[in-house]
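To: structure desk
From: M.T.
Subject: fold request, one chain
Message: Could you run this one when you get a chance? Sequence is below, nothing fancy, just the single chain.
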Amino acid sequence: MTPSITVQQVRLLQESTMRCFFLLLFLEGCRSSFETPLTIEPSSLAGWKGSCILIPCQIKNTYGGRCLNNISLIWYFDPSYDGKEYTGTILYNSSRTSQKHVIPTIAGLQERVTFAGNLNERNCDLKISQLQTSDRGLYGARLHGILEDETIVKDWFQSASVNILDSPLKPKLQIYPEETDDGLTTSVSCSMSYHCPDQPLTLVLHLENRLGLKEQHPSIQRPSDKNREVRKELSFVPTWGDHGKLLTCSITDKGTEISQSTRKLDVKLTTDCISFFLSCWLPADAPKPVELRASPGTTLREGETLSLECLVRTSQRAVLEYQWWKDNHLTNGRINESRMAFDPVGRQHSGHYKCGARTTLGTTESNELPIDVQYPPDEPKIAFSSRTGKEDVALHCWSTANPPITHYEWYKCPALDIISSQTELHFPMIQPNNSGGYYCKAYNPIGHSTSSVVTLNIHSGVWN
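Reply: Done. Structure tokens follow.
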């Protein structure tokens, strides 16, 4: 039995059909309102003084499914719209019907503007050369055209903002992965937004003290229509010896560097390489995964403050404890501390230090670090000696210092003149006139000190 349809159901069906019809009309109207055959992308560009900018502009062949014919185009600088027409500095006009809208230009802009497109190919690019600060502003393109099966001229408008910088931007330098392992292929890319294809730039990628990087692309890159950038890419296999090295990307224009960016490489050792009981091959000059650093340095003066820091340059395992050695003897009371401080530092702290970091895989030690605590000469001591009886007498001056003593000076009181620059003051045949008080001075590169006075009493060739 066929089900019957009531009058109310018929009315509901009619209302639903009308709602769908009006919804389709609304969607078609929205599509027509937002769709445009004129495209300027990107709509925000930047260049620097003296360079150039190409504003990319494209025109579609169709609009709303119909062919677009009889097109003409006007480029404006600093355009304005009064509700009927656009006005501004006309930079390019494919027809001669809009010359009445020309206003005086600024800083010779019209002379530096070139229409770089071809309307037959639906390209409407605009190029500005020798950029000046006054070129900063809004640039707009006005498209006129007639749709297929119509006689009315339609208009469309698109714009782009241009910013003029005093100097070039720094290139964007990327490393993938940012934290890489020893022996893992690493990719490097350097890029910079650039909108001047007629004046190509050169990109140079350089890794500090590293040869044999593999280039994936030529060094000179022209900006593509899609990306509008200049780019260079490299791939290489880092070793632990590359850790901390500087990677530099330089932008050059006709051989002159105009901008650069640098980054440090972060190269981690694989798990096997940091194990105490496993081993891996490392170059002879490669730094260890555990490094000992001294602040302010490895050479300092007595009385200053010394800080030693144990750095673990790998992130594969957490450090359970630290250990410290001086002259190959394990120190006590320093476990679980990554720093060792001496305030003040003394001469007894000179020596060869190293540290170790223990993880679940074992203990890895740093290289030895020599600490040299320097001090001026201590107060010199004077000793007597005789060789052949009491007639041959010598006075000996000695002191301790770091760096070592460079020379001595001898004086006889009360005179201030140096009587000898030797360690020993020798009297081969001592005479009564040699009687008197004597003292010496000891020198090293950072200071000197003076001894106490000793007295010689000579009586008829005999001293006491």
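Reply (cont.): The first strand starts at residue 38 and ends at 40. Let me know if you need anything else for the meeting.
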